[in-house]
Amino acid sequence: MALVYRTMMQLSGILVSFLGWVLSCLTTYLPQWKNLNLELNELEIWTMGLWQACVVQEEGGIQCKDFDSFLALPPELRISRILMFFSNGLGLLGLLLSGFGLDCLKVGERQHELKKRLLLLGGIVFCVSGIIAIVPVSWVAHTTVQEFWDETIPDIVPRWDFGEALFIGWFAGFCLILGGSLLNCTVCSTEIHSSSVHYAAAEVQDHCQHLETENRPENLRA
Q1: DSSP for the chain?
Q2: Domain map of the chain by residue range?
Q3: 64: β partners
Q4: Residue numbers of the chain with a pLDDT score lower than 70
Q5: What is the pLDDT of residue 141?
């Protein structure tokens, strides 16, 4: 029963982490990090991502233009590119490490300690990947709020607002952290279960030795 529960926890953890990794990759390339609604032309919505700016028209058309220079971007977008790439790379590494550490995988099934370490390391990498994914999303959201409430900008100037990619990025980071935590919990529960089994076995062995001592012939004649 404990083995089935641990296996289900491991599969749940790696599936949630995989979902978070896919959403993190999607967040990296979505152009909806910021949205801008123009009051003078309500038929158009401007969006900005890490790679391009787009104009979405009400008729359903969309036109996008890639940014010409990396150095010309605002600091938060430049660093967000690097952090999102780093997060996606760590997420892929976590998938490989934790995948080889699953109990249901027959590869290296006799090397229990190695598989346990791989699973633990994969869970830690997932958590780090989730934190790194949340940082750029939160940074862009923070600068967007600051610019939105900046009193030095005239009221007639349109303000950028949160885009859908920010919410997807927050959810992706949460899934990565949750999945990594589930994997680490399965490793900890395995250690607790193993120690309890060893303790119970030691108690049984001591009890058997005590019975053998009492049932020796010299003890019975006494």
Answers
A1: -HHHHHHHHHHHHHHHHHHHHHHHHHHHH-S-SEEEE-SS-TTEEEEE-SSEEEEEETTS-EEEEE-S-STTS-HHHHHHHHHHHHHHHHHHHHHHHHHHT-TT--TTTT-HHHHHHHHHHHHHHHHHHHHHHHHHHHHHHHHHHHHHT-TTS-TTS--EEE-HHHHHHHHHHHHHHHHHHHHHHHHHHHHHHHHHHHHHHHHHHHHHHHHHHHTSHHHHH-
A2: 1-32+74-191
A3: 54
A4: 1-3, 39-42, 60, 107-110, 189-222
A5: 94
Can you read off the two tokens belonging to residue 153? 């900008």
Question: What integer pLDDT is reported at residue 126 of this predicted model?
Answer: 95
Q: Give pLDDT, residue 84.
A: 96
Find the Cα–Cα–Cα–Cα dihedral 168, 144, 128, 91, rounded to 10°.
40
CATH number of this structure's domain 1-32+74-191: 1.20.140.150
CA distance 206 to 212: 10
- The model carries a pTM of 0.80
- The encoded tokens of residue 158 equal 């349109």
- Residue 193: its pLDDT value, please? 42
Estimate to the nearest angstrom the gap between the alpha carbon of 21 and the chain centroid.
Answer: 6
